[in-house]
Predict the 3D structure of the following.
Amino acid sequence: MTELIEKARQASNISTKISLCTTEQKNEALKLISSQLLEETDFILAENKKDLEAGKESGMSENILDRLRLTEERIQDMAEGIKQVVSLADPVGEIMEEWDRPNGLHIEKIRVPLGVIGMIYEARPNVTVDASSLCLKTGNAVLLRGSSSAIHSNKAIVSVIHRALEKSEVPIEAVQLLEDTSRETAMKMFKLTEYLDVLIPRGGANLIQTVVNNATVPVLETGVGNCHIFIDESAQKEMAVEIAVNAKTQRPSVCNAAETILVHENWAKEHLDQLVQALKEKNVEIRADEKARQQDESLLSASEEDWGTEFLNLTVALRIVTSVEEAISHIRSYGSKHSEAIITESEENVGAFFKQVDAAALYHNASTRFTDGFEFGFGAEIGISTQKLHARGPMGLEALTSTKYIVRGNGQIKG
């Protein structure tokens, strides 16, 4: 029996037991995991160091290394995220709707676990913790398949999770890690409908499309982030510059970082130089259209490809536009439906932007960096969905549930 089949079967067999765990049992298990992560920080960091060294030797880019890297602070953040999940209401068993029919039947629509979740992700070992905690809270079993680049980190974290679960009433089989990271095994996982109820890919565009195009297991699709900041003509200078710089540079390797800045021509005439200077002070490479380059010859020339690129580094595309309509048109042409922001004092333009831009999260006078389960108050997140079915945006606890109808009668039969 292969590792994949064995662990998927274990997860499937145990899923009913996990679904019956009480909120108190699940929360106690999560508290234990949070504490165990902090207790074993040195062990996790030592194993993460092995992945980082291997990544550097293989020529891994700095932005991928940043995603892979764990620090004491990041482990503390993971532990804190689990505590937030503990503090949230358990959605399982929630009565979403209920009503009575004329024939006396009473109908309830309630939340239930999805069952067994297959999680496929790249680089980031924090996803191991986020996915495990959210799945446990919602009574789901999870089969984790991380990338080979993070195998030491993921094995270490799952071993820590198992040691914590051994002290709880939640079975350790609730969290399984697939240590075989080969492409062949991944392709088999995509079609494991006998044991898996849903697949969630989290990573780059190639990974996501590979899963979507090859899976027979239903897919909860997360998306890449080609995010935009539109600085309208009425935008306050200091606010606009600060938001644009934050969205691009606060952590450029993540999906909610801004990749393109659109600037209204009237604002640009007065303030473009200050925006450019602020970005260059953060070592941002700016690739601009001809209108912007006419104002500042130091800017590099943007290619058509740049407008649709998720750079994930300190590179940004910059374009001058004549109106909110042109900004919206650009976003609709090149955006990935992740996160988009408008900086303006015009409520009319805000209204047009919010109504006409199709994205999971839209912002007025705020950075796109807030599209995150932790920032939205969901605790951890399983990913950010850019699709429209089942769930959209940061996916927290409710996204990991389905529904069932409970119908109560007193002898009714269909005539």
